[in-house]
Design goal:
By secondary structure, the protein is mainly beta. It is 10% helix and 41% strand. The radius of gyration is 50 Å and the shape is elongated. This is Seminal plasma glycoprotein 120.
Amino acid sequence: MLCPLLFLSAFILLAGAQKQTITKSSVLNISSCPITYYGQKYEQLYVNFTRQKIVFCFDHFYNPENKGDCIVGSSPNTMTADFDIIQADSFLDQWIRKKIQTIQNSLRCSVQITTQVRKSMITLALFNFGTEAALSLEAYTIGPVIYTGQVSKVVIDKVEVNNILESYQTDDILDISGCRHSGTVYKPGTVVNSNPQICSSVTCSETATLQTSGCGPLEHCQGNDICMLDTTCTVTGPIIDVHGQINSIQDRCAYSLFSTPSLPDFQVQGNFDDRRRKDVSFLDSVTLRVDGHDIHLEQGGRVQLNDSTLTLNSSSQLVHGVQLSKDQTGVTAKLSLSNLTISVFFDGDTAQIRLEGPAGSSVEGLCGNSSRSLRDLRLSEYSSTSCEMQYSETADSTINCTSVTERCNLLKEAPFSSCNSDIDPEPYITACTDTLCKYPAVDGLNCQFLKAYARACSLHDHTLDGWTSKTGCSSEAFCQDRTCSDHEFCGEKTVGGDTRCFCRAIFASKYQANNSLGDPTVCKQNSASLTLVGCLLEDKGIDYSTLHLKDPTCRGQVDELTHMVTFSFNSSNSCGTEVTANNSYIIYQNTIRSQNYSSDVITRNDQVQINFSCVHSQPNINTATFRIRDWSVAQHITSGAWNYTLTIKAYTDARRTQLVKWNTELQLNQKIWMELKTDGLDGNMVALVSKSCWATNKASPTSTPRHDLILNGCANRADRTVQVQENGLGTSTYFSFNMFRFTVGSADIFLHCQLHLCPKQGNNCIPTCSKAARRYRSASFTYEPEAPAFISVSWTY
């Protein structure tokens, strides 16, 4: 035993050429040779001198009330000590590891402190073996020395050296390696299986490396060493994912919120939209995609399966494997498999998605992997083409961000604080302040984040008694059972007051830019309509039910789905429409006015008067060819607002029952009845007028020779065979004449008619004709039995 001690003494004396003398309490820098003291690595050493002791502590200066990690020894004769850091030596390394066979690593360096206690020289050496460490205590001369090592008030080991002869040397080496976990120190080679009800075990390896096993940060112990995933994602406008990270949506697109590889045919989609501001988006609805079916959770607690609205109550209803229920707080959708449960709660403003399943289950989408870009998670096929456009608006000067922050920080106070250890309130506070510092605290938003946190806590069995009374909030869903259209959202008329449907900011902006309350007039050939936006009328304090056209019985019709109010008139009911015409246009004009409208100089009631009109161009001229033996000719005509078909037929009888066919024999001077009939015109609005008809022996209407049949809407008095049976009365014209042929040129006969559409209201469309007898026939034609019967018809309208 003498030789090893002499070797150690020689090592200390030879290697200690750069000693530092300590004369007072000091903090020593040992970062070049850190010591891992029972599993805790230290780079500083605190030295205290007292009358009774010299103390070396690793974490702070010695305090008898809080001893910490310290080595305590007897007080030296003088308040001095020598400090040195020694590099590793292979011989010393072998000697120590032979002495302490539990050490596995190689020596790297050592920290040595020497002082005199009474007649003894005491040298304390701390050896760095990486994750392991050892302590050496050497004493000269006679006298007892006490060494005690303490870790966090727990005595690890106690070494006592006594009965040392004056000229005799002795030593002791101590393994101070270990591992620490949750306030407990474990010696190397220790394996501890804790209670299986908390699913954890601790292993301190032979080289003092700590290894722990247990449930992950998103998991909880189900018992019997079984860990289960239990995690929640909260979506309002900001998204608080299962890791507590915040993501913010700036546009109005659809995004994948949640999916898991365990259920490849299931996805939760979030649809975002604007409300009072164009630059702030909120969650507007949630869509569950289950095996090709879409279940939509919408505002007001409405649930739709594809395009059908479901009726729900507190009792679960199974729809495509999803349990759906509804109460005063919102709608819950729950999907359960053998070892996996997904529940989605939506109250019209906030969605909370909870996954319970076996350890290792992963979450994808905005609720799971925040590292993916928003573009990757955007669902373009379910988004509008303009949803990505972002807007900027001036800051709301009425918002007091300091007051808002105080409100959001209530989540760190009682009763919310009782849940803080399980549910971190900071993401909810951040989402709350970020939103309410730029968006007014209306429409229940003042409580939305507090309510979301309270519900997340309830999922972990925290009731938070009294939170509603402290915050002035309600646990019930905001705007429950009020359904708004796609361009609306449900909001408060006054703070804390009644609710109604408001126009979304982006939708309303296109009307506000023109100072209008609705869309342009829709004009058709026999009707007109004007549609006003219901939510814009409410913004102006206008009750749509008090509005009417010039005829007070003509009131607006409300679309229950869009809340748009439409006023219209047509040929069956003109609703007081005034019609004017000139050579170029026909004008229909009406007015929407309030029930209490007055033309007096003064009034004490709100007045509404909205004028609207339709202007139709007079029709153009078109030409077609008609063969009597072809039975009939039909032409489709579109001109401005008019869209109709004109059919021309020839008959051999006055009742127009015997149609001229290809094999009908026609004789000169035989009477032919012509019918010009329209389909698609409203006879209450317009009448068809044949202003003139004439015959030529060429296809061109301007060719010669020419014989007139109808002039200015009346039969040509020069041809006594022409008779006009109906003209300007309805949407058809009838006239007759006797067959003839021209005496010069071609034997063909082409018939041309100029037609005119006459608005009936305010006009007499029937031509006024003279009753004078027709005295002569034009000399430019005569009767020839052998003449072929071909007629060409052209008309204008």
